[in-house]
Fold:
Amino acid sequence: MAEPIALTALVLDAALGWPQPFYRRVGHPVGLFARIITACEAQWNHRERSDSVRRALGALTLSILLLVAVGLGWAAQHLLLTALGPWGWIGVAILAWPALAQRSLFDHVRAVADKLDSGDLPAARTAVGAIVGRDTAALDEAGVARAAMESLAESFCDGVAAPLFWLLLLGLPGVWAYKAVNTADSLIGHREDRWRAFGWAAARADDVANWIPARLSGAILCLAGRGGWRVLRRDARNHASPNAGWPEAAMAGALGLRLAGPIAYDGVMHDKAWIGDGRSDANAGDIDRALTIYLRACLILWLIAGGILWLR
Structure:
């Protein structure tokens, strides 16, 4: 039953995204995860505690989060499939829909390209700042464009391929467990002193949850971009994350660009390795090409979900 659920959720997300009226009235489901994480962090992540204690309390936070995500996901799926019989999967697909981010990711990256096209670099910096964690105030046009494309590639995994993978594998409990882990990693899975110990479990769980989807994402982006395999094999590990380099290397190779490189966070420059061996002077036209590859990659995911359904 997971396959029609997955395909329907993909269609709903592509057509509607997560509509602003929904967001204004009920927020987004990951908001519940964020509130749990914030409450636990405020209660338990105190500097006077040792790293081992903070690590254990961070693991407890993640466990609570997963119990909520899996419990609610399983209960909702069981209730819908039991109460509605052969039509229950439609309700499950509706509940899985907000776990995907095809439309919102496209819209956010498209907004960056539009601002660059209009010559409004300050607005482009603001737009890209909504989807990346690095400092954006001093980025030039090429830096803004690269940041947008790196986020597009990495978020293709985090926001589309990985949720779909876990939805196909484990249904509604699986996709919302993944979103819980991914939300925890984005909020506390950092290397700064405040988060290093408390967020350790979240970061490691996210690494595990994305290990297979990241590699699949890299392959799918190369297929969609009709190239990039050499750069994928060579540069996928040129990233601090064990997973993010795979889709980024695939996108860099398919576009013939260099991505990543030195990046500033909180005023501190980090000398990160380059990914890819093409030019680094990216522009709005390159973002357009990246979005074309992204749309083809999403179509491949639709074909995979539909193909699994047909085979079943």
In short: The beta strands are 259-260, 263-265, 268-270, 274-275. The CA atoms of residues 173 and 215 lie 23 Å apart. Residues 2-311 form one domain. The first helix runs from residue 2 to 16.
